[in-house]
Amino acid sequence: xxxxxxxxxxxxxxxxxxxxxxxxxxxxxxxxxxxxxxxxxxxxxxxxxxxxxxxxxxxxxxxxxxxxxxxxxxxxxxxxxxxxxxxxxxxxxxxxxxxxxxxxxxxxxxxxxxxxxxxxxxxxxxxxxxxxxxxxxxxxxxxxxxxxxxxxxxxxxxxxxxxxxxxxxxxxxxxxxxxxxxxxxxxxxxxxxxxxxxxxxxxxxxxxxxxxxxxxxxxxxxxxxxxxxxxxxxxxxxxxxxxxxxxxxxxxxxxxxxxxxxxxxxxxxxxxxxxxxxxxxxxxxxxxxxxxxxxxxxxxxxxxxxxxxxxxxxxxxxxxxxxxxxxxxxxxxxxxxxxxxxxxxxxxxxxxxxxxxxxxxxxxxxxxxxxxxxxxxxxxxxxxxxxxxxxxxxxxxxxxxxxxxxxxxxxxxxxxxxxxxxxxxxxxxxxxxxxxxxxxxxxxxxxxxxxxxxxxxxxxxxxxxxxxxxxxxxxxxxxxxxxxxxxxxxxxxxxxxxxxxxxxxxxxxxxxxxxxxxxxxxxxxxxxxxxxxxxxxxxxxxxxxxxxxxxxxxxxxxxxxxxxxxxxxx
Length: 570
Hints:
- The protein is of the alpha/beta class.
- It is built from 13 helices and 20 strands.
- An 8-stranded parallel sheet has the order 17-16-15-13-9-11-10-20, with helices on both faces. Strands 5, 6, 7, 8, 12 and 14 form a 6-stranded antiparallel sheet that branches. The chain has a two-stranded antiparallel sheet with strand order 1-2.
- 45% of the residues are buried.
- The model is unreliable at 22-151, 238-244 and 520-570 (pLDDT under 50).
């Protein structure tokens, strides 16, 4: 091979080598660019979306299904698999399960009002399972915010109800309060539940949770809870009138027929409510005892007077048990004309009813689940008292309200003249029966009358029917009485038991007829009848107190009540 040929071969080899090198470099360069593209932090632009709820459309939530936290998914999240890669993360937002709240529907509870499992004490599922967990919406942009609200309308601000050592004197209780920078409002022993409770208030503006934790750690303190708020369950009444005898509830409940068998004589109903006008003609000779758990100087109230009238009216109107006795317990009051109560006052009221001869307790109010009141209700039921309560006026979206949702209580929902459910009536599987509660004619203070609505009055009618059953058979136990009411109720709505009407609308005549008459004569009747035509004779008897002249009195002077006015031991 010539030198010239060798040069050409070398040049070709060199060119081939250079070309191959360039090709390899080019390939390597492409691979580097792709690797950089993978390693680069991905840029994800996802606009913040907050679900909007039209105020004109109510959220569809079945009352039979416990509310669940709704997690809003904003789309798939891209997560790179290569180490040291940062990804854009989107925090889920919790949304309240209800679009709107009824005025009587208590909001999602804050930390002080949760049990050991973190569940809201006032918003348990009607069936005992499930819970309500919800986040608070930021007023600005609607983003999720777990910060609890500072104010809670379910309880009285800066107040505690605490079980304390029963050996403490009032002075010792005051010293206990001073040690923790508190003021003792009241304290007393409650034989009903075998405990001493006090009402304490924070007066120096310290954080509620801090004070509660320190107070609960004291050796003289057994338990501490908020002083929960309770509200009467009625709607705004119409302008007071001079009364109207057209009471459709009488026919719906078949009360005229039931009154051929019983009138509620010798049966005592404790009405825990606002002030009652015992001087109203419809209530003459019906109020046998008064107790003001508030210690107030307020006069009669429209709600309490109406509730008493639904039970015992006997003038131009007719109650469901016109011969029953009423223990008028004032537990609700307010300077602005409204009426509200608290855990401590309800506890005092239940204790008084149980200690002073009530056989039936009417509770036409509602509030959150309350450990102290649950304990008092259990003790009251254990003594054989019949407990009846309004289901509540918070509507279909409301969680169960108490005391109606307590299993020891007969919960009553409300119906109208066409047997439809009152729109504001609570629903739930704890509803026992229904009764008329819309456009109800009842007495009002100062000899007037009112037309009003609410589950309050449904409960009052059923309390009167319970009095008829106890007159019919004085030995009837609470569970047997409940069965008589539910088994004879007239079915409404879907066939069988449901969450709107329970077992149906109360039928007083059928219920009383289903109970065998008890031939035994109650002790109270042996000493003197409660029939009104004999009231004058009873006033003249020695050691008896005039029924129509009640006096405000406290627990200290109740030992002077004569045996004539006490119902027999059941």
